Amino acid sequence: MCDLDLRVYILGRLPFFEPLAADEIHEINRHFTERGYSPDEVIYIEGDPANRLYVVADGNVKLMLHTKRGKDVLLDVLRIGDFFGSLAHSAGDVYAESAYAHTPVCALSTEGPAFRTILNDHPAVALRVMEIMAQRLNAANEKVRLLSTANVEQRLAHVLLTLADKLGESSDQGILIQMPLGRAELAEMTGTSPETASRILSQFQNDGRVRTGRRWTAITDPEALISLTQD
Amino acid sequence: MCDLDLRVYILGRLPFFEPLAADEIHEINRHFTERGYSPDEVIYIEGDPANRLYVVADGNVKLMLHTKRGKDVLLDVLRIGDFFGSLAHSAGDVYAESAYAHTPVCALSTEGPAFRTILNDHPAVALRVMEIMAQRLNAANEKVRLLSTANVEQRLAHVLLTLADKLGESSDQGILIQMPLGRAELAEMTGTSPETASRILSQFQNDGRVRTGRRWTAITDPEALISLTQD
DNA sequence: CGCGATATTGACCTGAGTCAATATACGTGG
DNA sequence: CCACGTATATTGACTCAGGTCAATATCGCG
Q1: Cβ of A127 and B120 within 8 Å?
Q2: CB hemisphere CA count around B35 (13 angstroms)
Q3: Looking at beta carbons, which residues of chain A come within 8 Å of B129?
Q4: DSSP label of A73
Q5: pLDDT digit string, tens, across residues B197-212
Q6: What is the rounded average pLDDT for all residues in chain B?
Q7: Pairing label, strands A216-219, B73-78
């Protein structure tokens, strides 16, 4: 599915391999295998033995948490070049979240121990990984802050801005979020119901802040959304 | 405030220094300075330039997030041997949360760059740090799940069980949480108001699940609390 | 012992969840 | 290319968990 050049390109652009030389990337590439997934196909499930590090080579991946009563939490949506799975592998670890293909996906992956070897041999890589983990921890804590103190309107505004930042491309509709996301999915990212998400998006649309349709959203007035999140 | 033996003991018990030999710990100890804090004294504030790694040598530390309108989130309470601050230091970083002394505190701390050097020289230490960061990320994501899908009763039960796990000691009252926490603080950990926290604690007390008083809580029936968190 | 901080409890109100009916966008196949 | 059918979205009506405001009770320190 991916030719050698694409694979090496993807791997070389990973933030934590940035300190490595081209020939080292080629060497590392040999440890990775690739695999395709269809939309909604499971990549791994929370609780599975955690032993692989994945990199998105093409498509979009969803990271989710589940509940007994079928309430899901959409933690993050990943795009080409993003990585997920088992970063710091330790014996007996299990995945703490589930990963699904959202669109058709091509993913590269490697055994945890192989990655551990890389970390052992390249302290600079380990430091970059730690920085990235720190960013992810801060992002998660920020979600805790919003869920604890902000109302749905503020949380949804924040989610849209974050998505635009990560997946947005300017179009004639405004900043279009380049991933098909429905109301239910926005709700799962915001900690609310699809109905409430729909109501608030309608309101945003009336206020000229966004334009939206079936499984797509574009931001027309980012400033107006930002002003909602202030305090 | 701390004599040499205590310092070396504290440092040697840090999970990420576990792979190091005693003489290396002694060497590392020389990079740490100590400082005392009074209750409610600021150790650092969210947004300050982040350049120190701290270790609690005595007392309890609170990690918090704030809001413009004065709503606070209590992310975590730390005890002797816990560490906080700047783990993966990168240029221009600022602290993502605020740290306060809750009780009288003695803290050891070191410059970010010094710790970076240790990480560079000891890949095994770096791997342990990554494992710990992964645990913290998972804990934060679990909070997101609870805040997104669980009601206050379930969240409070979860908070109490987590506190008991970390700070609990069995006493004649049950498992006593060894840290003075008031209703307002439990509320800040749970994402609710002090009044609602109080109401639910009263209910727990009536049901024989906890015993509680002014700034203390003990769990008398952990199983009954666990059963609340199931789904 | 008395006072200030903390906790409890009550009354009220509102944001947002749920259930349900309707409307609309978009892919599919004719 | 259009019409149809279905998944998705919208909107309404209702309900309720839990937030807020306020009055009272109680703990434990000085």
Answers
A1: yes
A2: 13
A3: 130
A4: E
A5: 999 999 999 999 999 9
A6: 95
A7: unpaired
What DSSP string runs through chain B? Answer: ---HHHHHHHHHTSGGGTTS-HHHHHHHHTT-EEEEE-TT-EEE-TTSB--EEEEEEES-EEEEE--TTS--EEEEEE-TT-EEE-SS--TT-B-SSEEEESSSEEEEEEEHHHHHHHHHH-HHHHHHHHHHHHHHHHHHHHHHHHHHH--HHHHHHHHHHHHHHHHEEEETTEEEESS---HHHHHHHHTS-HHHHHHHHHHHHHTTSEEEETTEEEES-HHHHHHHH--
CA B43 to chain centre: 14
Any CB–CB contact under 8 A between A120 and chain B? Answer: yes
Find the mean pLDDT for residues A27-37.
94
Facing residue for A116 by CB, picked from B120, B127, B141 = B127
Of A98, A97, A96, A108, nearest in space to A17 by CA:
A108
> A132 and A16 in contact (C-beta within 8 Å)?
yes
Structure tokens at A36: 């395709």
Instruction: Please state, in angstroms and rounded to a whole number, the distance separating the CA atoms of residues B157 and A97.
Output: 22
* Residue A213 CA distance to nucleotide D3 C1' (Å): 21
A160 touches chain B (CB under 8 A): no
Q: Provide, in whole angstroms, the distance separating residue A50's CA from nucleotide D21's C1'.
A: 50
Q: Does any CB of chain B come closer than 8 Å to the CB of residue A73? A: yes
Burial readout A24-40 (b: 16 or more C-beta within 10 A, e: otherwise): bbeebbebbebeebeee
The residue to which tokens 């499971």 are assigned: A42
Query: Are B133 and A137 an interchain contact pair (Cβ–Cβ within 8 Å)?
Result: yes
* Nucleic acid strand C: bases within 7 A of protein CB: 6-11, 15-20, 24-26
* DSSP annotation string for B108-134: EEEEHHHHHHHHHH-HHHHHHHHHHHH
Length, in residues, of chain A: 231
Q: Give dist(CA A64, CA B56) in Å, integer.
A: 34
Answer yes or no: is pLDDT of A231 > 80: no
Q: What is the pLDDT of residue A88?
A: 84
pTM: 0.96
Tell me: pLDDT of A143 over 80: yes
Q: How far is B194 from chain A (nearest CA, A)?
A: 13
Would an 8 Å CB–CB cutoff place B127 in contact with chain A? yes
